[in-house]
Amino acid sequence: MKKKVKILYTLSFLAFAMPATAISCIKTDKKEEISKDLNEKLDKTNFIYENKNNVDVLNSNEDAIKIENNDEDLSFKISNFKKQPKLNSVSFDVYIKKDNKISETRKMVINDFAITENYLNALLDDTKTTLKLGDASNDGSEETVKQLNVWHLVEGQGAIQINIKNPDMYIPENLDLIVDYSPFDDSTEVNSKFNGTVDLEVQLNYEKENKKVSSKKKMIKFENQLQPGFSVDYLTKFKKLTFTFDNLENISVSQIQEGNLSDELKSHLKPAFDGNLEAAKAFFDKHNITFENIRVDGVLAEERKINLLIDLKMPNTDEEWGKDTQFELTGLKEVQKATNEQLAEFVKKLTHGDFYFGSLLNENNNEIPLRYSDNNNITQESPILDQELLSLKGITDFNVEELNKAKYDQSSHKLITTLHLNGQEYTIETTLSKPTVDMGVWANEVGDQLTAKANTINAISLNVTNLNLKIKLNNNLSSLPFIKIISITRKKGPEVEAELQKGTATLVYTFRNEFSNQMYKYEKQFTGLLVINDETIKQKIKSKQIVNGTLSADTINKIKALQTKKNTETPFGRVEVKNKVLKFGKSAKTVKNEFTGLTFDNDFLEFVNTDRLISNSGKFLTFKIKNNKLYLHFYFASDTSKTSYDVEVASL
Hints:
With 652 residues, the chain is an alpha+beta fold. It contains 13 helices and 39 strands.
């Protein structure tokens, strides 16, 4: 079905057009006797083109010029009549002769001829007329026009633009260009090559004062104006590409599971254009299109369809061109209701999995799913028992609320789930081999020994780097492959402050159960650590051990620029530890600048980072300038008297 789309266009130039009744005059010299009186009569004469509103400039002629002057004795001589299609006007020379006298010769111009069907046809047929396709989706100006691809034409929406130019012909401002396509015919020799050249049928439409005229339709070749090739949208939305099995009537939805499609089913998977396998095969062969990495992304048993993810590939395209293209394959055979024997066999292959710890379970209502496996080898990829899996197995009568509920019998160490399927009651039991859990053993397997003597490690800075790790973070335990160590962090908070001052710190080990996603935390306490207290920092301040190096001039200028009250000792700016580095800025969002040229004592940085050193403005340090020197200004958070300290960082 043909689709008519109005295409935007811009003018190639600004055409000069005077009002319809206006005439411009240019004086010329003539050697004959010139009469001033005749010159005046010529100036008062009107030259009108008869029926100009119905005649285009191309069909204009000298005989249609009407002279309006009341003096019947005057003889007007017209010569050098010229058509000017570029300006939509005609020009001619004219003078008056009476008796033995003549006027000066004047050049006259008549503008604004009609735009007729003949003119539009001539414009479309002229060899100097050029048409250019473009995507004017920004603001329609020629400078922002982008190159189109085939899908722009197929879609028929958006700001598709055709620029029309002709150096020798006038182009009306309210000219419309209409393109007819079906909506894009790729059966022609030109269009089917997808080499950037396309044949489109073009028509020019013009309307003025409710009068409409149209050119004939003409097939135009737009050479090298599209991006070569075609998009995946062109295949899926225009060609209506789908995938199906060539033996669809023999394949039941119950034969398919999520994940990679089996080799047997892959061999029967074929592309189709709107259901036509032959057309799709011919197109794929012609353009060397292949489909790979076929995955089942969803199985909808009741609707007898599956969702596929397929990587389409074609020469001279990038890797992302057809990656992970989604398709819906429908029409699979209906699943037959399972027999009692089939149901019993299915239930035998259900298990909770031995991935839980009895001491961490409730007696009732544990949110633990059942998993299905043909060979009883349960992995994370084993499908979880849900409505979809039951439907695939021909089980239509079940209670959804029973699927993820399990009881735990502490005496037998069993997980128990009761299901009612197709009118039958089934009990699935799984004996847990780990009724208790000792996370201290897990921590020991990961590594819970310090890399150095405890009294050499600062209690307030103890972290994972101080441990001799045998298993790296984000790796699984050897003894329990389904348990992963996620993180090891120092316990923080007001309740641990007193312990830190005694040289005791606690590291928190966080583990995750890969099957249940349950998180486990274990705390390991370390004693006899080095204690760094307020007096330690005060002594380092006194002995000038806080700062080393020379602050760069550029950094000094950045800091001085933060000062709002010049020539005062008023504190200013904001200094914090970010990612273990002391940085400064004007506000919390701008604390990004480093102290180039300086290094700071690690214990001092730890005190800043743990909010033990603060200012009157908040939990951060500030700057102060006094006696032409730059200082860090702060006090100890534990000091109720708020005695301030200044640490010099630069001389100004």
